[in-house]
Amino acid sequence: MRRVFFVSIWLVFQFFRVYSQQVNHWESIVSAEDQWEYFAGTSEPPSGWNALWFDASDWAKGPGGIGYGDNDDRTVIPAVTSVYLRHIFNIPDPSKIVSALLYVDFDDGFVAYLNGVEIARVNMGISSRPSYSQFAVTAGYEAKMPSGGIPSRFVLLPDQIKSLKKGNNVLALQVHNSSPTSDDLSSSAFLVAGIADPGTSFQPLPAWFLNPDSERSHLPLVVIDTYGQTILDEPKITAGFKVIDHGQTNSTLDPGNQFDGVAGIEIRGQSSQTFPKKSYTVEIRDRQGEDVKVGLMGMPAESDWVLYAPYSDKTMLRNALTYHLGAQLGRWQPRFRFCEVYLNGSYIGVYQLTEKIKRDKNRVNISKMDPSDISGEEVTGGYILKVDKTTGLSSSEYFNNVPDVKYLNTRVHQWTYVYPKPEEMAKEQKAWIKNYIKTVENTINGSSFANPSKGYSKYIDVPSFIDFQIMNELPNNVDAYRFSAYFHKEDDSEGGKLKAGPLWDFDLGYGNVNYSPENLAVDQWDFNKIGSETRNCLHWWARLMKDPDYVMAVKKRWSFLRKGVLSTDSIMNFIDDQVLFLGDAVGRNFKRWPILGTYIWPNSAVRPSYSAEISFLKDWILGRLAWMDRQWLIPDESENRLAEDNIKIYPNPFAGTLNIGMALSGKEVSLTLYDIRGVEVFSLAHLQPDYQTYRLDLSHLQDGLYILRISGGNETIVRKIVKGG
Known about the structure:
Layout: H1 2-19, E1 25-30, E2 35-40, E3 60-63, E4 66-67, E5 75-76, E6 82-91, E7 97-107, E8 109-114, E9 117-122, E10 152-155, H2 158-162, E11 167-176, E12 186-195, E13 216-217, E14 221-225, E15 237-244, E16 250-251, E17 259-268, E18 279-285, E19 304-308, H3 318-328, E20 336-343, E21 346-355, E22 383-388, E23 414-419, H4 427-445, H5 462-473, E24 485-489, E25 498-500, H6 517-520, H7 540-544, H8 548-561, H9 568-582, H10 585-592, H11 610-632, E26 647-650, E27 657-662, E28 669-675, E29 680-687, E30 692-697, E31 704-712, E32 715-723
Parallel strand pairs: 4-5, 14-20
Antiparallel strand pairs: 1-12, 2-3, 2-6, 6-11, 7-10, 7-12, 8-9, 8-11, 13-16, 14-15, 15-17, 17-18, 18-19, 19-21, 20-21, 22-23, 22-24, 24-25, 26-27, 27-30, 28-29, 28-31, 31-32
Helix pairs in contact: 5-8
């Protein structure tokens, strides 16, 4: 074990020793258009065919690509299962090469060798060198260049670069078809090198080559290569998957220090699938195709992840803000990290790597269930359920024929199974949890629903329902309670009540919607939007809010949270911190997706810049907090005092606009601002700050120190504020 550890450290050291040399420019060492020696795989090639010493003088010769079908090959060969390729190239001084990239355009699988040593393999299994008659593992891998794409890229590791010799070297490939009936086979290879010496040159670069020096970021990087496959809605395809996170500047040329292997990937989402920037479900796998638990970007190890693509939410923060605040309430919510993603060599923007909701000790920590758990305490949990659209689901994935459940209309939303997976659930388990939900529903609808011993509190975990309600009402989430609404239930030995959560999918919250005026507004509730639309909304919270004790519990929880986790400062500071953290990545994202100033469904308005999007988000939240305070905040004895808890001044220092939030009822207040000489430079009088936030435009003032005086009644407070710096 110690020997392996030291070898790993040595490899890391060698990597940074090699890559620490500056790349002056890039050159093609080998191009597909070069002359290649090739052998059609109608039999096994001689031993050592991929070594430099091998004599291939009797092999055929021709320019690449070499293959048949599709009319896209420079050298056409008869239909065969495989083709073997060699190209000898000369390196006068290998020490000048500090990085190297292999690009391969292929159909359907290949193995590549440098001086006889394997350097890349795709779709050819994990066994030793494939025989000439072996087929590629999976069909569907297509060459990209004929349709204007970029070939798949493979970064050579330091020891592979060091294997380059002074003088002649050989790059060799064997390319295989996926079936005896396939009508095409493609093979094109390029070897590109990063050169330290400005005087060293080889061949011009391909027109499609993108300088890897532009692929640097302070954010973690995710690099995906589908090797010519198309990512589908389902099923998952197997693709190369690399995660780079050094905690500093990261490059796509760096090795995957968090993970470097393969993953199953598919498109996720429903309405968001229409966007050109796609979200993906990712399942980390080993080379045998089995799930592998891996810790990524500081998050606990698991195999299942989501690469969420912020698109219609141009702040890219709405989901992040909700998960962050929800987690601060003390319940598990999906952890996330912002990153930048490259797909098949192309930059596709800022993403949010997010934990997928699933049963796990570090996620939804409920009991594991087996199909044999069909009676007694074992059948009572744990379960994860979701209320959502049934579009694209089979009938086995959601509750069918739930009789006698008032308001539960299956036309728009349904209860769906998340854990256990519906195909793995025993019929007794499905029947048990459906009956439990029916009991909860009928109890909430019953005349004794608020009874402390036999009412709703017997079946649901009330604190979780309160927190879930708060975190849906704060963003005035248009999908609240009816879509992407998760629930979970532990077995009876662990309490056994139905809990609301985790939170999921809030990109249409915080005023980012134009088709629902009630959700764009800051002064409307989500929980009571049932009326004649009972079929569209899970109505439980509307019913719970008919119980005065529940309402008081909500108000107490809101009042407590507003002093800390959900304070104005807490929320605004998080937004500011995330904007600062994203930094230059924001510009790269919107260069790739130039949608600022453009309507994207269902934006509430078109705003000209990223800063305008952030300002709208902040303003909307300030208005929402003020209105919710007027409905739910319970005044304490210090309610009307000019105290720290009742007056918030931010940001400080400020650039041009200073925000002053005041939670004061029935008190007239005046504001006066003095410069360092004591000269009055700004004032407002006769303010009635009933939970109001005032945005003061002070952009005309010079940078420097100022004194703010706030007076009300017989009280005065004085605060130092700074403009600039």
